[in-house]
Design a protein that fits this description.
- The protein is mainly beta.
- The chain has 4 helices and 42 strands.
- The chain folds into 3 domains: 30-160, no CATH class; 173-250, Immunoglobulin-like (Sandwich); 323-603, 7 Propeller (Methylamine Dehydrogenase, Chain H), CATH 2.130.10.
- The strands form 11 sheets. Strands 6, 9, 12, 13 and 14 form a 5-stranded mixed β-sheet that branches. The protein has a 4-stranded antiparallel β-sheet with strand order 1-2-3-4, sandwiched between helices. Strands 15-16-17-18 form a 4-stranded antiparallel β-sheet, with no helix packed on it.
- Mean pLDDT is 87; it is low at 1-15 and 24-40.
């Protein structure tokens, strides 16, 4: 202390001390200026950054409103900042709420210095928030899903003395429906499936069609929960309808749909030169030779489009419709429950309660294949076609066997004999019935097989047909085989007549690589369809028509020959009945040749 006093009394020391004091004061002033600047600029920057975030909300809401997910409405912050919208970075210090209709919004933010600001969709002005009274000005959005005070409370820090609000509600958004192209379909062929879809919130939708039968009248159905349209059409026609989707947000605008269902023509004939043909409109016609022309009659009693047809030429015709129901028209042995010898012509459903796949009619009996693979028979027991039944049956009765089948055929061999043939699901051939020329049943003389009997061991085949005393099959190698009695060069071996109890391969000489998928045999000729849609014929031109399809020459064709008189046309199926050949091309046209007066294959005009 004494030393300090001495210094103060020293004039030189006093001058030095004054300098020091001035320096200290200057340093203090500079420090205070810097401190004031720093502590003033940082809060200002924080507030400006918060206001910029509110401007970002304005841009994000404008974009969100145009999204399909928003349905033309503004979005709450929880939706705006998360997938799938995800238009703005999620921050715990920022929140947005909308009015109850989603037509306006209010955004609030807490800046780093603890200040609160808000803005609305109606005005770009950013305002300070002090109390709920601040939300009463003219351009405020109301009524809000959440009050502004609750929004502020949600972004406050513990020390800000606000009570957190409950979680914000999710704003429902009515669906927007998307319907893909609805393809045309065919009766009896699986349609689709096609899925209609929707966006919106929540994502649980109920789909509907109007009118209610817009799909069901065609045999189709809409799954109300998944939006899947599927089914197997059973009616032809054009159905126009609308589809909608509904969720908690409302119902979508209806979307118009149209489905067109047609049917492929089908046909079948018999040994009396009668052909039954259905057109693409589902109408069924009977062609009966009269001199050099046909008498064509529409079978109006059949009111449903056919997917399969059989006729026996003795006044009985059967069709299977797109629902798998079978209908018969005729008299004796019709199978409708009336006595076998009831001659009166009638039309009736046959075998109600069973879904059918194929039917094959002989003169006084018939067989049919169910979609479950079972064979049924009905009619007279005389020809042994019934397959173990000792007496006549008046309606379809299941043949007692555990074997499941995928294809059948039947024929009348002689007055008191008929033969049935079936291909099982393992591709083995089974036969039953009675024939006075036993080679067709794998024997000789008169042969009777009372029940379906497996033929030719474990040899497998793709398809089989029978006509009279001749059976033809396609092997799993795609080649043609025949057995029984085949005259008029119908065996396709190059020999005029063949009798064999076992399958004999056709001679494909000029077409060694041809592989076949379908065939048919008639009174004087046979035809087969290869996997590329080309038809081959062989046999003999009959005296009143040109069954081979090549004109008057050659008279006889001993081996399968490519039908080259139809240009580049390809075919989907072929049938030979009596002396007539009928074929369906891949464009849906029906061709005929072989009947008297038809000199070459030609498209028959629609009726």
């Amino acid at each position: 202390m004494l030393r300090l006093l001495r210094l103060l009394r020293n004039p030189r020391a006093a001058i030095d001390l004054a300098s020091i004091m001035v320096g200290v004061i200057v340093i203090a002033l500079v420090g205070s200026i810097i401190s004031a600047t720093v502590f003033g600029v940082i809060p200002w920057s924080q507030r400006e950054a918060a206001k910029q975030d509110l401007a970002t909300v304005r841009v994000a809401e404008s974009l969100a409103k145009m999204l399909p997910e928003a349905g033309g409405k503004y979005l709450e912050y929880g939706i705006l900042s998360t997938a799938p919208v995800d238009l703005i970075e999620h921050k715990t210090t920022l929140d947005v709420t909308t009015d109850t209709d989603g037509t306006c919004w209010v955004a609030a933010i807490r800046s780093g210095d603890g200040s609160f600001f808000y803005t609305t969709s109606q005005s770009p002005t950013v305002r300070d928030y002090k109390s709920e009274a601040d939300s009463t000005h003219a351009d405020f959005c109301a009524p809000l899903l959440r009050p502004l005070k609750d929004v502020i409370a949600g972004i406050a820090l513990p020390g800000d003395d606000f009570t957190p609000p409950p979680p914000p509600p999710v704003l429902p958004i009515a669906p927007t429906l998307t319907v893909p192209t609805l393809p045309a379909g065919k009766v009896g062929q699986v349609w689709g499936p096609v899925t209609i879809s929707a966006t919106g919130r929540p994502t649980v939708f109920t789909f509907a069609v109007q009118p209610a039968d817009g799909l069901s009248k065609l045999g189709l159905a809409l799954d109300a929960s998944t939006g899947v349209i599927s089914g197997t059409p059973n009616q032809i026609g054009v159905s126009n309808f609308t589809l909608t989707a509904t969720n908690d947000g409302g119902t979508s605008s209806p979307v118009a749909g149209q489905i067109i269902i047609t049917t492929d023509p089908v046909f079948a004939g018999n040994n009396t030169d009668v052909e039954i043909v259905s057109d693409q409109g589902g109408r069924i016609y009977q062609y009966v030779k009269s001199g050099t022309t046909d008498v064509i009659t529409q079978l109006t009693n059949f009111t449903k489009p056919a997917v399969a047809i059989s006729t026996n030429g003795a006044g009985r015709t059967y069709i299977i419709d797109g629902q798998g129901d079978m209908w018969g028209q005729g008299g004796t042995a019709l199978g409708d429950g009336q006595p076998v010898n009831t001659p009166a012509s009638r039309t009736a459903q046959i075998g109600a309660g069973v879904k059918w796949k194929e039917v094959a009619a002989a003169t006084s009996a018939a067989i049919a294949l169910s979609q479950d693979g079972d064979i049924y028979s009905w009619g007279s027991s005389t020809g042994n076609l019934l397959g173990s039944a000792a007496s006549d049956t008046v309606k379809p009765t299941k043949i007692p066997t555990s074997v499941k089948f995928k294809h059948i055929s039947a024929t009348q061999t002689y007055a008191t004999g008929a033969v049935g043939i079936g291909l099982d699901v393992d591709d083995h051939i089974w036969m039953w019935g009675k024939s006075d020329q036993g080679s067709v049943l794998g024997g000789s003389g008169v042969v009777t097989l009372s029940v379906p009997t497996q033929m030719f061991g474990t040899t497998t085949f793709k398809s089989v047909e029978i006509y009279g005393y001749q059976a033809i099959a396609i092997g799993t190698d795609g080649k043609l085989y025949t057995w029984g009695i085949a005259g008029l060069s119908k065996a396709g071996t190059g020999v005029a007549s063949v009798t064999s109890a076992t399958p004999v391969a056709a001679n494909l000489g000029a077409y060694p690589s041809a592989k076949f998928k379908q065939f048919s045999v008639g009174s004087s000729a046979a035809a087969a369809l290869d996997e590329d849609g080309h038809i081959y014929t062989w046999g003999t031109n009959n005296s009143s028509g040109l069954s081979l399809g090549f004109g008057a020459s050659p008279l006889t064709q001993g081996t399968p020959r490519l039908l080259d008189t139809v240009g580049t046309t390809t075919f989907a199926s072929v049938d030979v009945s009596g002396y007539r050949v009928t074929a369906l091309d891949t464009s849906g046209n029906v061709w005929m040749w072989g009947r008297a007066g038809m000199t070459a294959p030609a498209i028959i005009p629609p009726q």
